[in-house]
Amino acid sequence: VGARALLKNTSGSGTVAIGTNALIRNTTGQNNIAIGANTLTQNTVASNNIAIGITALNVNTGGNNVAIGGEALTNNSTGQNNIALGPNTLRQNTVASNNFAIGLNALEANTIGQANMAVGNGALSRNIDGGYNMAFGYNTMPLNQGGSYNIALGYNSANQIVDGSYNTVIGTGGSYINNGNGNISIGNSGNGTDTT
C-alpha cells in the first residue's frame, strides 16, 4: 500500500509494505514488514526485518533487524540481529550486529561497535566502535566512542568515559573515571568510591 511499495517484488512472501517506497527494491526477501515512507528501500533479498517509522532501515540489506522509530537503523547496510526502538536509535549503524538500543538517540552514532546494550535516552549516543558495553539510564555513557566492555548504571552515569574499557560505574551523576581501564565506581554525583 503506497506509491512504489514492493514495486520489484518477485517471489518474496509473507511481506507487508505500507508507505511510499516501502520495500521498493525487495525481490526475494521474505517475512519483512515495512511501515512508513522509505522504509527498507534498499532491501532486496534479506528476510525477517521489521521497520516502522519514516526511513527506518532505509538502506538495509542485512537480516533479522527490528527498527521502530523515525530514522531508527536508517543507515544499516549489512548489520544483522539489531534491535532499535526509538527515534534515531542506532541511526549511523552500518555493519555492526547484535546491538540493542531503546530510547531517543540511544547508540545513535554507532557504526561498527558490536553487541552493545543501551537503554535510556542518549545512552551510548556517541559510541562509534566500542563493543560489548552495557549502559542503563538516561544519558548514560554519552561520550563513549571506542571504549569496550564497560558497564554503567544510573542517570548520567559514566559520563566522562570516552575510550576507557573494562570499567564499572554504578550511581547517578557519573564518576571521575575518564579514559582509564579496569576501574570501579559506586556512588552518586562523583562522590562515590573509585577503585582500580
What does the model show?
With 196 residues, this protein is an all-beta fold. The mean pLDDT is 93.
Please give the structural blueprint:
Blueprint lengths: L15 E3 L14 E3 L14 E3 L13 E3 L14 E3 L14 E3 L14 E3 L14 E3 L14 E3 L14 E3 L13 E3 L6 E3 L1
Parallel strand pairs: 1-2, 2-3, 3-4, 4-5, 5-6, 6-7, 7-8, 8-9, 9-10, 10-11
Antiparallel strand pairs: 11-12
Any idea what the shape is? elongated
Number of strands: 12
Low-confidence stretches: none
Compute the number of helices: 0
Approximately how much beta-strand content do the residues carry?
15-25%
Main beta sheet strand tally, sense and closure: 12 strands, mixed
How are strands sequenced across the largest beta sheet? 1-2-3-4-5-6-7-8-9-10-11-12
Helix residue percentage:
under 10%
Round the mean pLDDT to the nearest integer and report it. Answer: 93
Structural class: mainly beta
N→C terminal distance: 58 Å
Rg, nearest Å: 18 Å
Order of helices and strands: EEEEEEEEEEEE
Task: Give a brief rundown of this model.
This protein has strands at 16-18, 33-35, 50-52, 66-68, 83-85, 100-102, 117-119, 134-136, 151-153, 168-170, 184-186, 193-195. It is an all-beta fold.
Features:
mainly beta, 12-stranded mixed β-sheet, 12 strands, 0% helix, elongated
